[in-house]
Amino acid sequence: MNTQRQTSVAGLLIGFGLVAIAAVIAVDVSGMRVPPVHAKVGPRFFPLLVSCGLAVAGAVTAWQSWRGTFESEESHPTDWAAVAIVSAGLILHMNLLKPLGFVPAAVVLFMCVTFAFGSRSFLRDGVVALVLAMTAYLAFTRLLGLQLPPGVLAGVL
Amino acid sequence: MEAFGALLDGFATALTPINLMWSLVGVTLGTLIGILPGIGPALTIALLLPVTRTLDPTGAFIMFAGLYYGAMYGSSTTSILLNTPGESGSIVTALEGNQMARRGRGAAALATAAIGSFVAGTIGTMLLTFLAPLFVKLAILFGPAEYFALMVLAFTTVTTLLGSSVVKGLTSLMIGLAFGLAGTDILTGQPRLVFGIPSMLRGIDTVVVAVGLFAVGEALYMASRRDLREAVILPIKGSLFMTREEWRRSWKPWLRGTALGFPFGALPAGGTEIPTFLSYFMEKKLSKNPEEFGKGAIEGVAGPEAANNAAVAGVLVPLLALGLPTSATAAILLAAFEQYNLQPGPQLFTASGPLVWGLIASLYIGNVMLLVLNLPLAGLWVRLLAIPQPLLYGGILVFSTLGVYSLSNSTFDLVLLFVVGLIGFVMRRHDFPVAPAIIGLILGPMAEAQFRRALTISQGDASVFFTHPISLALLVIAALVLLLPALIRKLPVQKL
Hints:
Number of domains of chain A: 2
Oligomer: heterodimer
Shape of chain A: flat
Number of helices of chain B: 21
Structural class of chain B: mainly alpha
Helix content of chain B: over 70%
Distance between the termini of chain B: 47 Å
Structural class of chain A: mainly alpha
Order of helices and strands of chain A: HHHHH
C-alpha cells in the first residue's frame, strides 16, 4: 500500500467530476414539468436521490484525494500515447462506419489497436484484420440477418 | 419431490438435439472466453444479446448458462499456465496454480481444477434444483415494498463488499444508477436526462454500458499499462491423472470450496471473488503443510476452483426465483430475460416451466461436457494463449463495436460506447469496482418502479417499507451491512 500521503490530482478531478454530474442531473430533473397526480413520488424523486448519492461520493473522493488517502494505481508508468491511439481508432471507426462501410472501418480500428499494443507486424495485422472483418460481415449479414453498412464494398461482398 | 419430477421434464427439454447443441456451443464458447484474458462471461453474453434476439429463449438461456459455467472452467487454465487470471473468480487460483506449473505439476493443477469444478458444479446444481422452488414459495409473499427492500439490500452489499473502499463501491453503484435513469420515464412518459438528443429517449442500453466498461475500458487500461503486456506461458508438464496422494489432498478442499461458494453466490455479494479468497485462506489455515502455500499447494487450487463454480450455481438461485442478480454476469442474464419479455420469479416457474427446468437440467449435462472438454483437451485450449495480445484486443474491440452497433444500427450508440469506455478506463485505473455499476444500471429502474408502485398502493404513505415485516427485516439487514464494516474497522484490529 502506498504510504506516502500526497494529494492526488486525478482523485480531485474525479471527485469534482462526480459532483458536476450530480449537479447536471439535479438541474435537468428540476426542469421537468410533473403532472400534479404524480407530484408525491413522481419521476423526480429517484434522480434526486441518485444526484445526492453522486454528490456525496464525489465530495468524499475529493476530500480523500486532498488528504492523500485516495488509493489508485496512478503510480504505475502510463503509456498515454497508446491510450490516445486506441481512442483515435474508436473515433475513426464511428465516423467511417457509415460512409466507408463496416469492413474498412473495422480494419482501421483493428490496426490502431494492434499498433497501440506495440505490434509492428503490419502485414500480419492487416491480413488478420481483413479476414476477421470480412468473416464477421458475411456471418452477421448472411447467417444472422443483421444489417451492417456495406459502404465502398457494396455489391462486391 | 415435485422438483424431481420437474427436473425429469427438464431433462426431456435439455436432451433434445437442438438444446444439446446450444449447451455444447455455450460451454465451448465459455471455455474459450474463460481462457482468453480480457473477455469474460458478462461481456460475451452482452455481445450475444443482439444476435440471439430472434432465437428460441430456452436454447439461448441454455447457451448462456453453459457459457457462464464454462468461463469458470476455462479461466483456471489461464491462471495456472499464464499467471494471469482469465476471470476475476480465478485470481486466487493463480497463486498456487502457477507455482505448481513452474514446478512441473501443471497437469495436476489443471486436473484438480477441472475435477473440482465438476464436483462443485454438480453439487451446486443439485442445491439449485431443490432450493429454487423453496425460494419461489418465499417470493410469492413479496409485494412491491418487499422487492424494493430486497434491491436496497443488493445495493448495499455490492457497495460494501466489492472493491477496496465503500466510497468507491458507492461511486460505481451511483454511476450505474445514473445511466439507468436516462431515457423516457416508464410511468409518466416524460423524458429524463435526455439533453434534447432524440436517440437518448430510448435510454442507454445495458449492452452499451456493459461492453463499454468491460471491453473498451479494459482495452484502454491494458494499452496504458505497458508492463502488463508480456506474459510467459508455461508448458503443461506431468500426468493429467492425479496421483492417489493428490486425490487425497483435493477432495476435502473441493467440498469445503463448494460449501463456501454456493451460499456466497446466492447472496447479493457480487459472485465469485469473495468465496474464492475465503476458500484460499481457509485451506491455508486447515492445511497440514501450510509451508507449501506460495510454493504450489494443490489445496490452494482445489478449494478456490470448486468455490467459483459452486458460486455460479448459487448466483442462479436468486436470479431465477426472485429476479435478483448478485453478480455482473447475472445482471446481464436478467437483461436477457427482459429482452424476451420474461420476468424471473414465481411467474417464470409457472408460466415457463420447460425453460427453467430445461435450463437447470442443461447445467448437469454442461458440467459433464466441460469435464470432457477441459481435461483431455487442455493441451489444445492452451494454444489459444499463444494469440498475441495486440491481435486479441484488436479482435475484442472489433466485435464490441459490431455488437453495440447492431443493437439499433445507430452510430450514436458507438459514441456512448466510447464515453462509457473512458469512464471504465478511469474506474479501472483508480481501482473502482465495475460490478456495482452493472447491477445498479439493471436494478435501478426496477427498484424505482417497485418503489413508486409500493407508494401508489399505499397512497403515498412511506411507512409501507417499515410496517411490512419482510420489507423491514430486509432494510434492517441492509443497514447492518452498510454500518458493520465501519464499526469493525473502528476496533483496533491489525490489518494484514
